[in-house]
Amino acid sequence: MNKEYYVNTLQVGEELTDFFMVKSPSIKVGANHKTYFDITLCDKTGEINGKKWDVDEVEGQNLSKLKDGDLVKIKASVSEWNGIKQLRVARIRKADASADSLEMADYIKAAPEDPGVMFDFLWDKAQDISDEGLRKVCTDALEENKEKLSYYPGAMRNHHAEYAGLLYHMKRMLDMGIRACEVYTNLDRDWVICGVIMHDMEKLNEIDSNELGISSGYTVKGNLLGHIVLGTIRMEERAKKAGLSEEKTVMLQHMILAHHYEPEFGSPVRPMFPEAELLHYLDMLDAKMFDFEAALEGVDGGHFSERIRTLDNRMIYKPTFK
Amino acid sequence: MNKEYYVNTLQVGEELTDFFMVKSPSIKVGANHKTYFDITLCDKTGEINGKKWDVDEVEGQNLSKLKDGDLVKIKASVSEWNGIKQLRVARIRKADASADSLEMADYIKAAPEDPGVMFDFLWDKAQDISDEGLRKVCTDALEENKEKLSYYPGAMRNHHAEYAGLLYHMKRMLDMGIRACEVYTNLDRDWVICGVIMHDMEKLNEIDSNELGISSGYTVKGNLLGHIVLGTIRMEERAKKAGLSEEKTVMLQHMILAHHYEPEFGSPVRPMFPEAELLHYLDMLDAKMFDFEAALEGVDGGHFSERIRTLDNRMIYKPTFK
Amino acid sequence: MNKEYYVNTLQVGEELTDFFMVKSPSIKVGANHKTYFDITLCDKTGEINGKKWDVDEVEGQNLSKLKDGDLVKIKASVSEWNGIKQLRVARIRKADASADSLEMADYIKAAPEDPGVMFDFLWDKAQDISDEGLRKVCTDALEENKEKLSYYPGAMRNHHAEYAGLLYHMKRMLDMGIRACEVYTNLDRDWVICGVIMHDMEKLNEIDSNELGISSGYTVKGNLLGHIVLGTIRMEERAKKAGLSEEKTVMLQHMILAHHYEPEFGSPVRPMFPEAELLHYLDMLDAKMFDFEAALEGVDGGHFSERIRTLDNRMIYKPTFK
Amino acid sequence: MNKEYYVNTLQVGEELTDFFMVKSPSIKVGANHKTYFDITLCDKTGEINGKKWDVDEVEGQNLSKLKDGDLVKIKASVSEWNGIKQLRVARIRKADASADSLEMADYIKAAPEDPGVMFDFLWDKAQDISDEGLRKVCTDALEENKEKLSYYPGAMRNHHAEYAGLLYHMKRMLDMGIRACEVYTNLDRDWVICGVIMHDMEKLNEIDSNELGISSGYTVKGNLLGHIVLGTIRMEERAKKAGLSEEKTVMLQHMILAHHYEPEFGSPVRPMFPEAELLHYLDMLDAKMFDFEAALEGVDGGHFSERIRTLDNRMIYKPTFK
Amino acid sequence: MNKEYYVNTLQVGEELTDFFMVKSPSIKVGANHKTYFDITLCDKTGEINGKKWDVDEVEGQNLSKLKDGDLVKIKASVSEWNGIKQLRVARIRKADASADSLEMADYIKAAPEDPGVMFDFLWDKAQDISDEGLRKVCTDALEENKEKLSYYPGAMRNHHAEYAGLLYHMKRMLDMGIRACEVYTNLDRDWVICGVIMHDMEKLNEIDSNELGISSGYTVKGNLLGHIVLGTIRMEERAKKAGLSEEKTVMLQHMILAHHYEPEFGSPVRPMFPEAELLHYLDMLDAKMFDFEAALEGVDGGHFSERIRTLDNRMIYKPTFK
Amino acid sequence: MNKEYYVNTLQVGEELTDFFMVKSPSIKVGANHKTYFDITLCDKTGEINGKKWDVDEVEGQNLSKLKDGDLVKIKASVSEWNGIKQLRVARIRKADASADSLEMADYIKAAPEDPGVMFDFLWDKAQDISDEGLRKVCTDALEENKEKLSYYPGAMRNHHAEYAGLLYHMKRMLDMGIRACEVYTNLDRDWVICGVIMHDMEKLNEIDSNELGISSGYTVKGNLLGHIVLGTIRMEERAKKAGLSEEKTVMLQHMILAHHYEPEFGSPVRPMFPEAELLHYLDMLDAKMFDFEAALEGVDGGHFSERIRTLDNRMIYKPTFK
User: Within 13 Å of residue E234, how many CA atoms lie on the same side as its CB?
Assistant: First the structure.
């Protein structure tokens, strides 16, 4: 069944019946001693808070079975509280993706390209690496993580926090990195490809994510060490398996370690060879381009977006002529 | 005549007779009350200090006619003072590029591509702009500055401080910018091209340079306002002439104003639309790639360069396998 | 009619009937599905939120015609919500300044001196400038902007965000600047006067303000370039018209450009001659004196004000003996 | 006898016989095993290094009696070493100010106003304070320190490091502070006068200075506590003696403590009432005006000064029309 | 009577009758025009907001007599508002510690060691100082402040903000400081002991605290000068009384002044002798150990605490095996 | 043979014959075209530059065989150049430690405790660890590195740059760490011991050092990764061998990774459990105590040391009474 109402276009006063995905459902007791149901309702365009008031015991037991990622059908109206829209839910039931003929893609924010196609792009470029050791490091890592890459987000929040967002980030960086080698001909293409593919691979172990690409937080080792150092540690074993020399191993570890450039963003060293430097700029540029595009969604020509925290609190401008 | 000895390969103890370019010549009186001649001798590979001791009055009058950019023929030997090489000059005479059949290119550090070819590249891309106003802004500015661009350095020191260095900087940024539009398809190619061509144009009025691309300092308005603000001011008149709307004028001024990104590097605002953001990264990347390449000149495999001030004091590594 | 109740002296529990100015009126739907009217009520002493509950359709249509800057008569009582006072509005009607014999000055925060008198002060000092070009720059700019200066605020918020606040800021800075020339006799009075008059002139194009001196935000070019750079650009044309030499033009542009001193506050260069340096300190001192005075309004002797954001989060002390 | 040659106008090659003041005299042994005499020669315009070569034992014993602040007559010629001028001394003898009819004022850098006149200015203003306690604090402190104030420098180096420099600093700040009270009429003139007079008084115990206003360094307590905290401690006793209330005592201590404003410049708290805030700006402005004037000494019109460390490394511009 | 319900273990939905301590009681009028009673209820484990709705005039008059630090008996139920627990109070009456047989220790957060024992520890170590003057400074100060030390908190909030918290801080620092002298044998034990005992003594005059160790804010001189400078001023008189030399006086003042190390944390100078340096680290370490212990209270094994503001926003980890 | 002259007590003019250790020997050609020998001469108290002038070809060939760490016997006199002492060498010959009966300990700066005794201290404490895995990690690492630890410096320069300096650093930190566990009883002693022993172990692979504890620089992997990350990587394998759980492995890696605390000093994460926090403070305190002691060597009572770069440029004070 086609979804009709999307979160980012709901109007105050509107009445609606439609499907949404569930986030953070919880039974609460109000100041008036009555039980109500508090829930966040999501689709690919965003999320909105909902309340179902006056929940009795039987209904409460049913509702308490709903969990993150479930789909529900609701009947509700759009109200406003302190300038923020809210859904006043009249009826709610658990839905079933297949029985209700729902497209999962309508309910989760996802990268705009197909995971399979993106993975193949990376795979082809990895095969293209002429240094045997570097090639093996990349193809081993891609093979090992093929499934997780197909859905992992690139972050818990901020840029690329979406289904297959990590893969999308890697793909566009690689696309750009290969072009950079055409302009800056002193760069070694092998190292650029390998650096891009490996630089964020341990995000797969830093972030906890379900198969919808929705992250519930960081792992313990994600918190205690971070993906940059996890990737540096892990490279020791990968490089050994691929038969890399100590120098090349250390250089790959350095690329991972230095790619955030600034100590306060997690890089204890700064790039010390050109391909490591490029890697940093590819990473930055891709994050920024993603954030600018996201910031301008829904902004009218001649106006500015809200202030965007990840863009140093800037407001982004959309010209009238676009 | 072919030059035989180059500054970057001189050995202590070597005796030589060859041509060099003059910088900062000056007659001085030593602690022993005798007159000597102090000079910096340059070629395309670098520069070295020279001293001619015991200069008598007649010779002194001749030497005092030498000025920056002259070519001289010297007979000298290489000594060392506090670990720094120096030329002990025995004989020196003014040379003449044509009479002595000298190639100017041997004596000045120059961009590795031909100025004419680089200019044509910019011109072609400017012609390619579909917005009539933006196109006229670019072609007018290129036409007006064609001659100065053919030799102007990109900086007084640091990256692109070389003959035609500014043009080389613009050319590589543009080459990269156009490729970025292929990956980030939301970008407007017209604005990227125009932004790259115009962003540093007022360096031509900020820096004083002779026709060899050697800068002797900043102009008064270079110091009081800087090329970023000069470019923003100048755009007012250029845009009016090209018939741009106020919005487009302000946007172009914003691109110039924001391209250094950080307030402490001269940008009072940060980029507020995607093409302005890209412009900053193209600028950074080109400067960094230039500096890395320069840093590694003459470094042996398996070793690090000196600490490079413009690269946040990093030492750059050259692998053994290159 | 004389206003009786002022915002800054309302007491919880008080019942009142009086006039106020309207800000941000809006019809909203509550969690209980009922319509209510949300409004900010202002006078020269401050502002307070008001709610009129249970608005029916007819009344809603009337209320929806109210707009920013209108005057209304209300009957209301003062309640408290989370420690913040609120007006519970029982009746509300649009008022008419002349029919109701209201003094606009009771309803808007305004500079404590008469705009006409302040303008004349600036005008006299401008006439006093001995350099013909500088004098013409000032008198032209004052003439051109005489009307807007009579009501423009000096800022959107913070210091001098009030009716004729910009003029008040210019007037007191100039008063102080002229005295500084008596103490620091190496200063050139012409440049001090001209710098003060011109330094913030483009706030008139950076900020959007109605004729009550109430700002609704920044203009597009205010956001993309800022008043400092707008003033620098605009000076190019003003100086040309006044026949200034290039040197003097660039110096005036420098004064405007440098007057915030710190790059992170919008000045890409720092002052490079004494009058430019003084201008910065006059600006700072006037802003600080304004903020201190405002901070201490309503503070009792022996106590501290709240923390003031614009004063680096300081609490300001009022001695017991004052 | 009138001095003819001044340090700031010596030319390389010049021969001269004239008087100078001695600084850091020392007998040294060169690499050639011979003894020479190393000395800094000063007058009110600056200082220059001098060497007397080949000093024999007898002369050495004489020279070793010279000490800081002595006057000498020398015969010497001006040479240059590494671009820095130096005096090659042929003859040197101790001079006697009265026998040689020398004006001490020619030999030391001094404030441009008479110490007695400046002191009287401060004294008059102190008498003018209407609060009895504050008045007594000021007059007591001025009386106690009258003699030291007549010659103490305002700093070891940087602004006001000159004979009677501290007094000059106090005098001009006070002159400006009183005028500020005319513009900012909410300020309490008593506190402004008292704050200015007392704010730097403990520099007299922080800095070691001889009676020529030449400082040889900081005292132990100057290093361990600094003049700001010394002044705050000392005020405890002064205030008690003047019968000030605890509140007024603490407020005066706060003014002293906060007058540098920034923690990293020695103020652990920031100003918390308007007079304390003004005091900071009076202090800054006076230091800056002093430094700008000093920076422009000897700079030609249309040129910039060297970079000035105390002015955030700025170059200062002197216009062509001055 | 034994307390049964503690704040940190209350469950939503629970009904309870128990004693709590009162904080910030206040009568308020709601949006519905009805009067309610707003109160914070505390015990040694934390605090929780409570509301008693629909308070009539008679009850209101009774409730308005409750003040900070009173004990009350309440009947209430636990509800939740925006994820924060709240007590809905049905009945409330003032209690009496002795009549109701209450242990004050149940109601206030207190240091885990007995104040008397801790004081004796400090006293013994002070008696142990071999330098007579330093010993007298310490014993005088301890004697003078014995009573206040027995209950004063170490801070208004953050580390050691609890009954006898200041004493606990001094005691553990001293315990550690004495051990440090065993390892770093160049340290002078006398100065370490004296520095620890005196460094925070003026917190007793910076902070306002009642005898339960609950602080209501800073004193006027606490705000205007801070405990570091207050301690430095006060030492002048203490040292004089103890017959210390000027050098030792200044050194003690320096230890107090420098103990926060960073200017932005209130130290205008940094430590300049080893015992002053150690004092800083003892202070830091004790604060950090306190905060880590507090952060981990109630955290389950294998989980992280919330982000802790005083620990640079870190989340603290509790291992599974503890 | 007993050494008589030590570097830190040489006087200008003194003639001496004694043994020194060689550093950076080099044959150079002067401005006068003559060959001379330039050398640094060291003993345990410091180092001094020496020159032997007029070296002929035969002698030059002999001298060119000297290398870092050789011992030489010289005849020389002490001169001074620009305020810096220098040895003018008349005769020089290679010495032989055994033939000349020299004590190596006279020639190298060394930790004040015996390496064997210090190692045993660490070994005993490691044996004391009750957690089997942690114990094995420590004892394995100590066994593996026993020899290198006996001479390795703790740094290239700065604190603990001396023979067995690393071991001395570990030993004193451990001594202090164990005492800290007595005061802060919530700390787990096992983790403190293990953290101290392992935190800097990879300095053995970051720094290049000969067996005299003299470092010639960083290794390639020292530069590209640093000892903190090297230690974190290496722990992966050590922990596996010792059978540690993943959690404990990650915690140990975190301790190493976080021990510099500040990102700009190389720690990409900050400590997240109490033992990791303590480790940082033990490290800081030991470095500071070392630097303070070194700074005060040779300073007279009542005076300050030079400014010490590693102590934030502080001058350190030595009291008169010590």
Answer: 23
Enumerate the residues of chain C whose CB falls inside 8 A of the CB of residue D274.
289, 292-293, 296, 316
Give E165-219 pLDDT, tens digit per residue. 999 999 999 999 999 999 999 999 999 999 999 999 999 999 999 888 888 889 9
Q: Are A177 and A236 in contact (CB under 8 A)?
A: no
Residue from C261, C268, C152 nearest C205 by CA: C152
Enter the ipTM: 0.88
- Return d(Cα F256, Cα F227) in angstroms, integer: 9
Instruction: Report pLDDT digits (tens) over D91-135.
Output: 999 998 888 888 888 888 889 999 999 999 999 999 999 999 999
User: Which residues lie below 8 Å from residue B67, measured CB to CB, with a gap of 6+?
Assistant: B22, B25
The CA–CA distances, whole Å, from B318 to A272, B302, B304, E112 equal: 9, 6, 6, 59
- Tell me chain B's radius of gyration from C-alpha atoms: 23
**CA dihedral in degrees (D17, D21, D23, D26; nearest 10)?**
40
CA-based nearest distance F29→chain B, Å: 6
Give tens-digit pLDDT for F45-92. Answer: 888 999 998 888 788 888 888 988 889 999 999 987 666 788 999 999
Which residues in chain C touch residue D316, judged by CB atoms under 8 angstroms apart?
272-274
The residue among B46, B17, B21, B38 whose CA lies nearest residue B81 is: B38
Which residues have CB under 8 Å from D141's CB, separation 6+? D197, D198, D201, D238
Residue A216: phi, psi to the nearest 5? -105, 5
**Closest Cα in chain C to D296:** C273
**Chain A neighbors of C223, CB-CB under 8 A:** 304, 315, 317
Which of E221, E233, E262 has its CB closest to that of D233?
Answer: E233
Amino acid at B239: A
Amino acid at C96: D
Q: Do F229 and A232 touch (CB under 8 A)?
A: yes
Q: Is F308 exposed, middle or buried (0-12, 13-18, 19+ CB in 10 A)?
A: middle
Q: How many residues does chain C have?
A: 322
- pLDDT value of residue B82: 60
Contact D125, D174 (CB under 8 A): yes
Are B77 and F33 in contact (CB < 8 Å)? Answer: yes
- Contacts C–E by Cβ distance under 8 A: 22
CA F276 from centroid of its chain's CA atoms: 24
Q: What is the pTM of this model?
A: 0.90
Residues 6+ apart with CB under 8 A from B162: B108, B109, B110, B111, B153, B154, B168, B213
CA distance D263 to D155: 19
From chain A, the residues in CB contact with C220 under 8 A are 302, 317
**Confidence class for position B81, pLDDT limits 50, 70, 90:** low
Q: Does residue A273 come out as left (phi exceeding 0), alpha (psi in the -120 to 50 range) or beta?
A: beta
Q: Which residues of A touch B (CB under 8 A)?
A: 172, 175-176, 179-180, 182-184, 186-188, 247-248, 251, 270-274, 277-278, 281, 284-285, 288-289, 292-293, 296, 302, 304, 312, 314-322
Residue type, C97: A
Of D172, D251, D278, the CB nearest to C319: D251
Please state the separation of Cα F96 from the chain's center in Å.
Answer: 25
Determine the distance from the C-alpha atom of residue A21 to the mean position of all C-alpha atoms in its chain, rounded to a whole number.
17
Report, as an integer, the average pLDDT of F216-223: 94
Pairing verdict, β B84-94 and B46-52 = parallel
- D299 exposure class (CB count in 10 Å sphere: 0-12, 13-18, 19+): middle
Question: Considering only CB atoms, which chain E residues are within 8 Å of D257?
Answer: 225, 229
